[in-house]
């Protein structure tokens, strides 16, 4: 990137909801954009709108990130376009239902998009970012990364992956200027629920955030240097104490022997 060029952000899942919100706010902040999704008509419309309103140069990439050709197309862009300084891994889906009720196709698609695509795109972006010692990755997880319900087992597991992967990346990159922020939205008013199988109208409107509020808060979190951003949580101490407890629990696993409750008298076996 030369001095007069704008930085470029690549946003996945930009054709609606949170991704479209990031595209708008990043254009407002002076980014040029590469917008990725399957619905080209939506991307084209958004690109025209953002170019007019913010003067951004907006490219669109039609890609189904659950397919090899779709992922490869976006990986190649991330590897070859050195103008890209920000990757927003936002595309995701979540069919809600019990593990046996969700179809094979929906379960495979959820893992492919929420886990595999996010991993591959991160791996494609990182070498350039590390070589330049700059750049940022925003991974959109969910509060469901911390919580499983009978209808969210698989979705929660994919989001737990995003949280865990992002936390590990932050450790890996600690000695560099490359940033990884993981965002954990709670219910947000988007088309997510049209595909999830449970309508947004089933939720108490008081617990649902607007896309604009979510994205603005998450970007403010990025500006503050937050590694984990939970836009709807007022008391940050809750996360801090959760993380302390997690660390303490992990330290307690490093004992090298069974805990006393699992120890049986020598030579004997426990009675059943
Ligand atoms: N809404 C909520 O309550 C919450 C959402 N999230 C997360 O936020 C992220 C964005 O979701 P949200 O904005 O709510 O939902 P939307 O359904 O509005 O947006 C999902 C986006 O992902 C894209 N997408 C879906 N499937 C594919 C695919 N196969 N290939 C490429 N792009 C795809 C869609 O575009 P297209 O269909 O054109 O391909 C769309 O742009 C997700 O990761 C979701 O898990 C997290 C917590 C709460
Ligand atoms: C599954 C949900 O309730 C929601 N989309 C979330 O990720 O929090």
UniProtKB/TrEMBL annotation:
<comment type="similarity">
    <text>Belongs to the short-chain dehydrogenases/reductases (SDR) family.</text>
</comment>
<dbReference type="GO" id="GO:0016491">
    <property type="term" value="F:oxidoreductase activity"/>
</dbReference>
<comment type="function">
    <text>NADP-dependent dehydrogenase with broad substrate specificity acting on 3-hydroxy acids. Catalyzes the NADP-dependent oxidation of L-allo-threonine to L-2-amino-3-keto-butyrate, which is spontaneously decarboxylated into aminoacetone. Also acts on D-threonine, L-serine, D-serine, D-3-hydroxyisobutyrate, L-3-hydroxyisobutyrate, D-glycerate and L-glycerate. Able to catalyze the reduction of the malonic semialdehyde to 3-hydroxypropionic acid.</text>
</comment>
<keyword id="KW-0614">Plasmid</keyword>
<protein>
    <recommendedName>
        <fullName>NADP-dependent 3-hydroxy acid dehydrogenase YdfG</fullName>
        <ecNumber>1.1.1.298</ecNumber>
        <ecNumber>1.1.1.381</ecNumber>
    </recommendedName>
</protein>
<keyword id="KW-0560">Oxidoreductase</keyword>
<dbReference type="InterPro" id="IPR020904">
    <property type="entry name" value="Sc_DH/Rdtase_CS"/>
</dbReference>
<dbReference type="InterPro" id="IPR036291">
    <property type="entry name" value="NAD(P)-bd_dom_sf"/>
</dbReference>
<dbReference type="Pfam" id="PF00106">
    <property type="entry name" value="adh_short"/>
</dbReference>
<dbReference type="InterPro" id="IPR002347">
    <property type="entry name" value="SDR_fam"/>
</dbReference>
């Amino acid at each position: 990137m030369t001095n007069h060029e704008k930085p470029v952000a690549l946003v996945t899942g930009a054709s609606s909801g949170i991704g479209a919100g990031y595209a708008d706010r990043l254009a407002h902040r002076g980014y040029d954009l590469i917008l990725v999704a399957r619905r080209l008509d939506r991307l084209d419309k958004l690109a025209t709108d953002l170019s007019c309103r913010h003067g951004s140069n907006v490219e669109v990439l039609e890609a189904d990130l659950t397919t090899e050709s779709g992922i490869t197309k976006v990986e190649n862009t991330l590897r070859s376009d050195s103008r890209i300084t920000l990757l927003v891994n936002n595309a995701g889906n979540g069919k809600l239902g019990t593990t046996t009720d969700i179809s094979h196709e929906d379960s495979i698609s959820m893992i492919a998009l929420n886990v595999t695509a996010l991993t591959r795109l991160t791996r494609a972006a990182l070498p350039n970012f590390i070589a330049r010692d700059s750049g940022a990755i925003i991974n959109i997880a969910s509060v469901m990364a911390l919580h499983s319900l009978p209808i969210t087992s698989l979705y929660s597991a994919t989001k737990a992956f995003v949280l865990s992967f992002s936390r590990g990346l932050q450790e890996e990159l600690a000695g560099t200027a490359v940033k990884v922020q993981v965002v954990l939205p709670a219910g947000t008013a988007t088309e997510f629920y049209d595909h999830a199988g449970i309508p947004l109208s089933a939720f108490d409107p008081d617990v649902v955030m607007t896309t604009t509020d979510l994205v603005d808060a998450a970007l403010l979190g990025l500006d503050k240097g937050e590694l984990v951003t939970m836009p709807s949580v007022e008391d940050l101490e809750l996360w801090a104490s959760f993380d302390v407890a997690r660390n303490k629990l992990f330290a307690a696993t490093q004992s090298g022997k069974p805990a006393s409750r699992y120890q049986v008298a020598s030579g004997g076996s426990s009675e059943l």
